[in-house]
Design brief:
With 430 residues, the protein is an alpha/beta fold. The protein contains 14 helices and 24 strands. The chain starts with a strand and ends with a helix.
């Protein structure tokens, strides 16, 4: 089993380039099969979730051709099967996008119910309600979503909550339904806009993505395109907080600063200097960090995927901070691991009360999910001594070459697979 071993205490310094957005990539890759011509996607993150999704698409007959680690061409004209199943695909959340894409193109889809990180329930009722309003009959049996339609007809859909997954799924299905669909109260995240822009580049007619109302005029078919995925705001934010935790000075490049405004604002409140450029942000943490209050909200609010990272840094900041999680009910599972490193955090329901301590001390911890795993790495980078992070399978779902990128900023971190390698690292670094 792979794990990270880290010797903390070194300020991160230098420049880091951010890859393509994982959350955008999952929707865009699936949408690509809706065309019957080759579609080329660039700036693809080379992470486990993307690899699993591409394998699932190949399993139903799509042709997937890698140009390099970050560019892929997909041809959906050869799809023969509308059943997507298997243990691997059940492990990622983005599998449910295959329902929206296959239903839109073929009027039928049978897809295994998704999994992903155990951070709380992510109900798919908004997806199912929307599919039904577009004319589909949807059932769940044997752990699969079964959606079928004689024909898909436009509808006026109101989402009870701004669900990212439902918004993307319904944009895909509505793109090939008859008439104009209106989606009210949609999610507004940057990757919603990116998926809409991608669909439009294939000939879809989607207006209003990123606003309170999305209008989708159905078309008969989609065509080939070449498209580059937006930078990953969560990867960028993770490195920004790593700079803060280690009292570093890091230039985070290949980003869209507008997408990082909520993260940047909190870092400034905590005492960091954040300088914005056209496609980069620089984070300098030369002063003691101080407490703040945080509540996770749908975009443009503070992102839930950045909650473990800010909590980790607030735990070594002066004063008492309060972090409220309003999106997922089980997202503080990593707090017990931080406590092993010396953090003083009390969780009450969906709120964490954090009393800042002077420092972390190295310990052996385990990643309970993707973003929490990255947060534990940040804690290890800031800690005194050696930290081992187990179960990094989760981290590799969403971060490409995480340890290599951190090492490029001066961190003492390695990915190892045995106790012997841990001992070797400890002897070499001490």
């Amino acid at each position: 089993m792979k794990r990270y071993i880290i010797k903390g205490g070194t300020p991160l310094q230098g420049e880091i380039a951010i890859g393509g957005a994982k959350n955008a990539a999952l929707g865009i890759l699936v949408a690509a099969v809706m065309a019957d011509e080759p579609v080329t996607i660039e700036n693809l993150p080379d992470v486990r979730d993307v690899q699993v999704l591409l394998e699932a698409m190949e399993s139903i007959g799509a042709i997937v051709e890698y140009k390099d680690n970050h560019t892929v061409t997909i041809n959906g004209s050869t799809i023969q099967d509308y059943h997507v199943d298997g243990e691997t695909i059940r492990k990622i959340r983005g599998s449910y996008y295959l329902v929206g894409a296959l239903l839109g193109k073929y009027k039928k889809a049978v897809v295994a119910l998704p999994g992903g990180c155990q951070i709380g329930s992510r109900p798919i009722d908004q997806h199912l309600k929307g599919f039904e309003q577009l004319g589909a009959t949807v059932t769940i049996h044997n752990g699969k979503i079964d959606a079928r339609a004689e024909r898909l007809v436009a509808s006026h859909i109101y989402l009870d909550c701004p669900s990212v997954g439902a918004t993307i799924n319904l944009m895909m299905t509505a793109s090939m339904a008859e008439g104009k669909t209106i989606i009210e109260n949609p999610a507004k995240e940057p990757h919603i806009v990116d998926v809409a822009n991608f669909l439009n580049s294939m000939g879809a007619n989607i207006k209003g993505a990123g606003t309170d109302v999305i209008r989708v005029q159905g078309v008969e078919k989609l065509h080939k395109t070449e498209y580059s995925i937006i930078p990953d705001q969560i990867e960028a934010g993770t490195f920004m907080f790593a700079a803060a935790a280690t009292k570093g000075d890091v230039m985070v490049k290949n980003v869209i600063p507008k997408h990082l405004e909520a993260t940047s604002a909190k870092l400034i409140e905590m005492g960091c200097e954040v300088e914005e450029f056209d496609d980069a942000v620089r984070v300098v943490a030369s002063k003691p960090l101080r407490s703040t209050q945080v509540m996770t909200l749908a975009y443009p609010g503070y992102p839930t995927d950045m909650q473990p990272q800010i909590t980790t840094v607030l735990a070594i900041s002066e004063g008492t901070s309060i972090v409220t999680e309003s999106i997922f009910e089980n997202r503080f599972r990593y707090v017990d691991e931080l406590s092993r490193m010396g953090a003083s955090i009390k969780v009450e329901g969906n709120t964490a009360i954090i009393n800042g301590v002077e420092k972390y001390t190295g310990a052996r911890v385990a990643a309970p999910d993707l973003r929490a795993g990255a947060a534990l790495v940040i804690a290890g980078l800031a800690a005194e001594g050696i930290t081992v992070v187990d179960d990094i399978y989760y981290v590799e779902r969403g971060y490409e070459d995480f340890e290599k990128k951190l090492a490029g900023l001066g961190a003492h971190i390695e990915k190892v697979s045995s106790e012997k390698e841990i001992k070797k690292f400890t002897l070499r670094i001490s």
